[in-house]
Amino acid sequence: MRRRGFTLIELLVVIAIIAVLIALLLPAVQAAREAARRSQCVNNLKQLGIALHNYHDTMGRFPFGAIVAPVNNYWVLRGAGGEHYRYSVLAMLSPFLEQTQVYNALNFDFPVFDEVGAATLPNTTVFDLKVALFLCPSDTGQTVQPGFAPGNYMGCAGDGQNNGGSALWGNPNGTFFYNSSVTLAQVSDGSSQTALLSESVLGPGSFDIPKPGSPTPVNVQTEIPFTPITNYLPLTVGECQSPTRYSGWRNRGWIQGDMRNMLYTHFITPNSKTYDCLRGSDYGWKTARSRHSGGVNVLFGDGSVKFIKDSISQPTWAALATRAGGEVVSSDAY
Q1: Closest to 263 in 3D by CA, of 132, 151, 103
Q2: Predicted pLDDT of residue 199
Q3: Are strands 263-264 and 153-156 parallel, antiparallel or unpaired?
Q4: Residue 176 forms part of a structural domain
Q5: pLDDT < 50 regions, the chain
Q6: CB atoms < 10 A from the CB of 30, how many?
Q7: Residue 289 to residue 202: CA distance in whole angstroms
Q8: pTM of the complete model
Q9: Is 20 part of a structural domain of the chain?
């Protein structure tokens, strides 16, 4: 008796069917993985929200957006000038996040950087200390500056209308800015209507940076060319179109509190195709951005985390940034 096997055509048909099934299943698997990553991102922000309120209960206020202090004896001896320290919200929250070892390694009596831009000796151990809670799992595979531990979660400095969203000058109307000392009583817009923290993408080649040899800034998330901000306020056209000096500094270190790193504004909408514009560390417009499809996660003052879509209107987005702007925002507006 002769055994009848599969013909070549039958085998190819079976392989083709399996390939089609895999092609149909793969997007669902990817979507499930991203849903899990986004859920973890939400959980990270909720943990930070609990820590913020524990900090407020202990200290009677929210943390500074950044500590900026005048020159002390340490700096006089080293011949430096200007304002220094600049520790971030995340750095000050560390003892309220079961990160006691991180907090113990921080030395707030010394500036973050010395006069040549290097980490001060008392803080070198924490500069490259990565903390999983400070990172969004969807923003993986990014090349960040060696020797630094990045963070995705930033404090909201306001709507960006005052002196370009200045964290140092002007009158920021958000909850976190340089030497801020905001209490819940000062959040008169309502804690459920006031953004505290949101996300950013990491590392060099980020949203505001032209690719080498190309004059057109490129969106690294979708490869769609960006358009520049047309309302420059105190920033010059050149500063907004050529921000190459700060290409590697987007949220490169969770320890650092400034506009390049752990602060942002609501001047432009989430994941906007308008590229961010920074003038050094002190002010500019850096909006919330994420690797999540269609929007960003935002922590509000009542501890809730909401997914804000890219399609939100700019006035509504700006209103959510102010702590005492008096705006009336409907819950169905976002």
Answers
A1: 151
A2: 93
A3: parallel
A4: yes
A5: 71-83, 116, 204-226, 232-239, 241-248
A6: 10
A7: 10
A8: 0.80
A9: no
Residue pLDDT, tens place only, 208-233: 444 434 444 444 344 444 455 555 44
Decide: 56 and 62 in contact? Cβ < 8 Å: yes
C-alpha to C-alpha distance for 269 and 314, rounded to whole angstroms: 6
What is the domain range of residue 47?
Answer: 31-326
**214 Cβ partners below 8 Å, 6+ apart?**
none
Residue ranges of E strands in the chain: 66-69, 84-88, 153-156, 195-199, 263-264, 277-279, 283-285, 295-300, 305-309
Q: What average pLDDT does the structure give for the chain?
A: 77
Residue 94 lies in a domain: yes
**Residue 158 falls within a domain, yes or no?**
yes
Pairing of strands 295-300, 195-199: antiparallel
- Other C-beta atoms closer than 10 Å to the C-beta of 95 total 16
Closest CA relative to residue 170, chosen from 160, 183, 185, 156: 160
- CB contact set of 320 (below 8 Å; sequence gap of 6+): 193, 194, 195, 266, 298, 300, 308, 329, 334
